[in-house]
Amino acid sequence: MKLCPLWIPVLMIIIISSGCAGILSYEEIAEQHRTYTSGEKNATLDEWHELIHALEKFLHTDENSDSADEIQFAIASSWVWCIKAGDTQAPQHAIAAFRRLIYTYPDSEFRPQSHYWLARCYTHIGDSARAAHHYQTVTEKYPDTDSSAMAQLELARTYKQHGYEKRAETVYLDIVKSESNKDIISAATEELKQIQEKQKPKAEIKNTPPQKPVKTPQKNETKPTKPEPQSLTPGSLTREFGLTAKTIVIDPGHGGKDPGGIGVGNLYEKPIALAISKKIAAILTDRGYTVHLTRDSDKFIPLKERTAFAVRHKADLFLSIHANASYNASANGIETYYLNITSSDKEAERIAARENANSGYTIQELESLLKGLIVESKSKDSRRLAAHIQRELVAETGAKDRGVKHARFVVLIGTSVPAVLIETGFITNPTEATKLTTDTYQEKVASAIVRGVEQFIVNTEQISQSNPKISNPHNPQLAATQR
Q: Is the pLDDT of residue 220 over 80?
């Protein structure tokens, strides 16, 4: 498996003729690109910059064309070549260019490679946290693409570099078991052996940037700054790779004598919450986290005991999983809550009252707890965690976005760590109730929640380190093809 064969033309585009003298035709731009990337001509930085400028100018003539994403990819890959040529400002330009493709063209076939090379650029400037996130995005969202195998290998190397050998070993083993590319298997096998034998050197594998077109950012988007190197303290590293949250407590809502909400066809909330929670736990455990479930069967646990459970297990994050219910059968969508002394709205108060019904606290105790603990609660972090999870859930499921809200949920009180309550859908809505009972949809929900958790962790603390070298880019070729 490789990233874009060397001679595959990547731009099939309508050539727009220009009536302005002195402006290069697209055929000329494509030919320049071919000679630079093939090595036929050893282009200077000035020549690369001129080529990028010409591509950008051409792109601006029709940013909504079918081939606009290909041109953007060509521009971004050209910036990667500039990195190789020693342009100190190129990494920031490349990052902005790849990000523009990812967020402007959500259906582009170049997104997997853009995520991969965005990760490589982040590694180059010392932002290993964001690099790891984008490598994971490739392996999770685009597992069958050419970019996935290299992303998996680079993710393992990133873990290994920072001392997370258990997580690196897991990824290396996955590569050896499932990959078909002999070079990648050989590299993973050797590096896995080094971990097992506590050796330091690493195998080399040819690794070179994109092979298809992209676009550079506007000038006001690229203010390149050289990051200040920071010491790699254990604390910063654990945050960087999801191990600030070494221990995550997942709380499947309700259970036993408490069925939770009751939906279509007498569907109870409690088994839905448990099934999704178990799937979340499985994914997180596979990624090296320590995960505890407040319940793993159909048993009743008072809410205040769930909080005590999280404290007892020294949780770093707390996720309470639920399914929503409403008297209005048309109510639908997903919403995520965090603790606050005031409620978002009357609907939030209603939901909190329902979820608090078996709390084991009197009204007076609840008010006292809130007054004493709300100051200690990780309200801002919880709000950020909720936002990341909500965003991923809506993107993954296509469900209605009911937003991030806050209310007085007893189960979130007193954990002193980022804590959220997730209403994964309405069991009183016939369509959502059907989806929530299927393994496929539950897996989607679980995967989205995990991605939200890891995005929260990745963004909790950014680190910088000395700039590693970026490998030779692939040779993206532009086809000067008229049609």
A: no
Q: What is the 3-state secondary structure (H, E, C) of the chain?
A: CCCCCCCCECCCCCCCCCCCCCCCCHHHHHHHHHHHHHCCCCCCHHHHHHHHHHHHHHHHCCCCCCCHHHHHHHHHHHHHHHHHCCCCCHHHHHHHHHHHHHHHCCCCCCHHHHHHHHHHHHHHHCCHHHHHHHHHHHHHHCCCCHHHHHHHHHHHHHHHHCCCHHHHHHHHHHHHHHCCCHHHHHHHHHHHHHHHCCCCCCCCCCCCCCCCCECCCCHHHCCCCCCCCCCCCHHHHHHHCCCCCCEEEEEECCECCECCCECHHHCEHHHHHHHHHHHHHHHHHHCCCEEEECCCCCCCCCHHHHHHHHHHCCCCEEEEEEEECCCCCCCCCEEEEEECCCCCCHHHHHHHHHHCCCCCCCHHHHHHHHHHHCCCCCHHHHHHHHHHHHHHHHHHHCCCEEEEEEECCHHHCCCCCCEEEEEEEECCCHHHHHHHCCHHHHHHHHHHHHHHHHHHHHCCCCCCCCCCCCCCCCCCECCCCCC
Domain 237-458 CATH superfamily: Zn-dependent exopeptidases (3.40.630.40)
Confidence of residue 242 (pLDDT cuts 50, 70, 90): very low
How does pLDDT run across 376-420, given as a tens digit for each residue? 446 788 889 999 999 989 988 999 999 998 876 654 565 578 889
CATH 1.25.40.10 maps onto the chain at 26-221
Question: For 475-479, what is the mean pLDDT?
Answer: 46
Predicted TM-score (pTM) of this structure: 0.50
CATH fold of 26-221: 1.25.40
